[in-house]
Each structure stands twice: as structure tokens, then as C-alpha cells.
Amino acid sequence: MATEPRRATGGDGTRHAEEASDAELPFPARRGLRPDKTSADRGISIGVGQIVAGIAAPLSLSVRQSGAIAEGRLNMNTQTAYTTAKPTGSKLKIAAGIAAVVIVIGAIAADTKVVTIGSQHDVREQGFQPDSYGAQEFPKVQAEVEKRAVDAVTLATAVLADKKAAGEKYGVATSTGPVLPVSLTGTFGDRKANLNEFKVEGLPDGVVIRVQTGPAINGTELRDATGNIQFGQFTNQIEYQDAGSAINNEMKKATLGSLDPEKLTGKTAKIVGVFKLINPKNWLVTPVKVELK
């Protein structure tokens, strides 16, 4: 039951009355709160605020976290994509490298020539081989010289009559004079160094014939005898010279190999060979065939 507030007159009475009134006012009014709001109203307000704040804070955090997560996922996706792309690039480089190797191998295979060992191509691939060349070429030279050989008496008469005409008719031209093929039947004479004189009946007076019997065989008459071996077939002058020496060496094995040059004096033989026409009365014959009788 409410109590009527006391009212006193004068200064103190008024103050007491006001204090009493303040004490009797509801709690919100004493705190300077709006008197038209009750505790229940304020409690509802506070409750709603707390609820809103409670919802908003996690929601804000969630939004921030979601952003961070999204950003993280974006970064992660970017890194993953880069990581994925990087091996792909490496694989492409490897594939390109393999393709290049295959192309190179294919080109090498297409440009590769199979050469039989010991064949003509094999000799060329290995560079000039004098021994092989001599063995290959001498039989050709020998056959050509035997086919074109002129009897010594007939040839001697021709060269003494007209050296130039005889050279053009019977010989193969070279820069130092024609090389003439000749057939001789006679007797070996005295030996000097690597040569033996050779006496042929019926020769014009003054004609001297000497035959190379080894062991050393000099000159390039055999190389030049057919006209088929030319400088342009070789890499340089050295090879060209070596070709001549190789044919000489092969002739020595094939033609003179069974002969003892120290024992040839006085023996009768038939010889087929070549000489370079420089002096019509002085012939130095390189044989391709020697038949002792």
C-alpha cells in the first residue's frame, strides 16, 4: 500500500520532500532514465541488442573469414593452376625435345649410305688408299697397253721420220710429251742401277732401249698411258702422284715379282710396255708384261 509522501515547509522540508519523492520513484527514474520506459521495456531493448550484437559479430566474422577463405581459395587455385601448368609446360618441352631428336635421327638415317667393306665406295669414304687404287687400276692399264702396243721396229721408224706425227698417231698426250705403247722382242743386256738394256733386231741405227726392271720403278708413264686417269679425279697433286706410284708398285708385283733382275742379262724375252717420247733415239720402257723365253 502506497504511502503519502511527507511535505515540509521551508528549505529543508522541500529538500526532504524531493528526496523522498526520488527514493520512492522507480529505479529507472532515479538513474536519469526515461521515465516513460519501464524495466521490462529496457530489458527487452537490452535483450534485443544483445541478440543482434551476438548475431552480427559472428556474422561479421563469418563474412571476414569467408572473404579470407575465398581469397585463400583463389590464391590456392591460382597456385594449383600454375603448379598444374608448370608440369604441362615441362612435358611439352620434353615432347618437343624428343620430336627434335627423332627428326635429327631420321635425317641422319636418310643421309646414311651403306657401304660394303672393301668396295670402291668404301675406299672413297676412308680417303684415298694408294694400294687399293693400284690393285684396281693396273689391270686396266695393262689390258689397254697390250691392245694398243706397236711393234718396236715400226714405231722407231715412225718417230724418227716425224716425232710429232708419230706421237699423235700412237700415243696419249701429256704436258711433257706423248706416252707410246710398244711391243719388243729381244735380249736383255747389261744392267745398271734399276735398268737393263734391251737389244731388238732390226731397229734403226742409234736407237737405244732400256727397260725398268726394279726394284725401284720411276715415272708416271703407266698412270698416263691410257688417258683415262686425270688430275681432276683426285683431291690434290699429292694424291695424283700417289696414284702413279701405286700403279707402278702393283706392276712390280704382278709383272716383275717372279723375276730376279740381277739374272736377266743374256735372256731372251718378249716385253710389252710404254715410254714417253722425248728423245726419239732414247727409250726408257716401263713394262706391263714380261715373258722370258
Describe the model.
- This protein is α/β, with parallel strands linked by helices and 293 residues long.
- It has two domains: 12-82, no CATH class; 128-292, Envelope glycoprotein gp160, DUF2291, alpha/beta domain (OB fold (Dihydrolipoamide Acetyltransferase, E2P), Beta Barrel).
- The chain contains nine helices and six strands, in the order αααααβααβββααββ.
- Strands 2-3-4-6-5 form a five-stranded mixed β-barrel.
- A hairpin with a 2-residue loop joins β2 and β3 (195-199).
- α5 packs across α9 (237-256) and α6 packs across α7 (163-170).
- The longest helix has 73 residues, at 39-111.
- The protein is elongated, with a radius of gyration of 63 Å.
- The termini are far apart.
- Mean pLDDT is 78; it is low at 1-25, 27-48, 58-63, 65-74 and 80-85.
Summary tags:
293 residues; alpha/beta; OB fold (Dihydrolipoamide Acetyltransferase, E2P); 2 domains; 5-stranded mixed barrel; 9 helices
How does the helix and strand content classify structurally? alpha/beta
CATH structural class of the largest domain: Mainly Beta
Into which percent range does the helicity of residues fall?
40-55%
Q: Radius of gyration over alpha carbons?
A: 63 Å
Proportion of residues in β-strands? 15-25%
List SSEs in N-to-C order. HHHHHEHHEEEHHEE
Q: How many beta-strand elements?
A: 6
The strand line-up of the biggest sheet is: 2-3-4-6-5
The global form is elongated
Number of domains: 2
CATH architecture of the largest domain: Beta Barrel
Under CATH, the homologous superfamily of the largest domain reads Envelope glycoprotein gp160, DUF2291, alpha/beta domain
Q: Find the CATH topology of the largest domain.
A: OB fold (Dihydrolipoamide Acetyltransferase, E2P)
